[in-house]
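DM from R.C. (forwarded with permission)

"hey, sorry to bug you on a friday — could you get me a structure for this? deadline for the figure draft is monday and I only need the backbone to look sensible"
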Amino acid sequence: MHIADEWPNVVARMNRRMQMMSRKRTMMRIEAPDNNELEILMAYLKKNA
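My reply, with the result:
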């Protein structure tokens, strides 16, 4: 859906949303990925873009 150069901005936007959700006290708590997980995710997305 995105080219390799677009993924950093997309992932950053998604991560900000996950961080906001992880702070809320809801039944469906979302845990944002740590920096290592983000690096792994970015490498995968760029490679398979």
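R.C.: lifesaver. The chain has two helices and no strands.
me: no worries. The chain has a mean pLDDT of 88.
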